[in-house]
Amino acid sequence: MAVSDTLLAKIRGGEQITTAEKLNLIVQLSIPSMLAQVTTVLMFYIDASMVGSLGANPSAAIGLVEPVTWLFASLSSACSMGFSVQVAHFIGANDFEKARAVMRHGYIFGLAISFALMILAAAVAFPLPGWLKGGTDIQHDASLYFLIFSFAIPFVLLEQLSASMLKVSGDVRRPSFIAVLMCVLDVTFNFFFIFPTRTIEVFGIQIEVFGLNLGVKGAALGTASSFAVGALPLIYFAIFRSKILAWKLDKERFVWMWSYIRNAVKIGAPMAVQQMLMNGAQVVSTMIVAPLGNISIAAHSFAITAESLCYMPGYGIGEAATTLVGQSMGAQRRELCYSFSHMTVFIGMGVMALMGVVMYAFAPEMIGRLSPVEEIRELGTAILRIEAFAEPFFAASIVIYCVFVGAGNTIRPSIINLGSMWLVRLTLAAILAPTYGLRGVWFAMAIELTFRGILFLISLFRGSWMKNLQKE
């Protein structure tokens, strides 16, 4: 049995856990997720550089609809979390049979939701770039990219649902490995799908490489194909190989329980509404950036990709926080909830503060890898350096949000996120963009992330999110 499995069993068994064991558990659950998150971003970084080599217009076409692709992926994630949080609580209470029952409901209900999202996304694919005020020179490519992505939504949900189920059960290694594999496949598919047949030189040898020359469409097909391939082994691991969640462990016949659906909606609905409005805010932000021109659109998109290298470790630590707080809540361990929440938050802030320093120092190289266009490089470097100062507080908002999700409290963090985004970031961006251009938009973003992080820290320290737990 792995050390992490032993320590998680201590949580469920009511045993005392030392500070060193807590730190060990956080590290063991965080590291695989952090590596997977960083590898994912690195691969998207390479993905973006592949498209960037085609010029500013293809990059702008993808950047224009990218926030809306995040919206649909986030809605799938909200659906997944509605079930996985319940699974974490049942596992913490040592009720593995109910955990598996919730998991079955998640697959059935989740697939139904994913097909509805797929139909909706396909229906809006062609008018969408016009709604976002993209130029006519990029609208066609943007529509095709989004249309191809829409058909991958069921696979996106299956991948997210299976991965989240495994993670809350304590198995972070398999989903992390598959995340890395998906990224490698994405780059491989793009290598053949985006570019034409060409001759490349490897160790002084000329090799002819086949290519479909699909450009932006090839990037979309590569991403969709990687999700489809990655979802299948995750489903297999979750349903057949998990020590806790494998369906073969069930002794009783499956019975449909609407209470699990209602609980999932109670947990997931605030997250879904938040994601809709947060990504809606990203869309509005794109609409603020779009009139600044294709150079600004491309620099904005590339800088977001580059910045992801800094905040993905925060999400990795946040995933560990969700698992640890979720199982501690299920086990009714108030002291552990408090301890794990504070330790994960401060570790996340420290890691992302360091990453902020790295981002500031290497901003020219990070953007330079993504585009050969000098104007994009110069603008992207400037806005990344603005954002670097906000990274520690961005970490606080990421990890504390995950803590609250693990506790099943999704309303308050959703309100904080929405209020901060709509009232602070977008207001400031709309005011600053006409005068300061894209730099003004990112200055508004840095101020808002700092403000949001402070609000989350205040909410964490007040401790009311643990009100359903009795003092030990």
UniProtKB/TrEMBL annotation:
Membrane topology label: Multi-pass membrane protein
Subcellular location: Cell membrane
Annotated GO CC locations: plasma membrane
Alphabetically ordered keywords of this record: Antiport, Cell membrane, Ion transport, Membrane, Transmembrane, Transmembrane helix, Transport
This protein's record includes keyword Cell membrane: yes
Pfam families given in the database record: MatE
GO molecular function: antiporter activity; xenobiotic transmembrane transporter activity
Transmembrane segments: 25-48, 68-94, 106-132, 144-163, 175-195, 215-239, 336-362, 382-404, 416-436, 442-461
One record GO biological process: monoatomic ion transport
Main location class: membrane
InterPro entries: MATE_fam (IPR002528), MATE_MdtK (IPR050222), MdtK-like (IPR048279)
Protein's UniProt keywords contain S-adenosyl-L-methionine: no
Protein name: Multidrug-efflux transporter
Organism name: Prevotella micans F0438
Source species taxonomy: Bacteria, Pseudomonadati, Bacteroidota, Bacteroidia, Bacteroidales
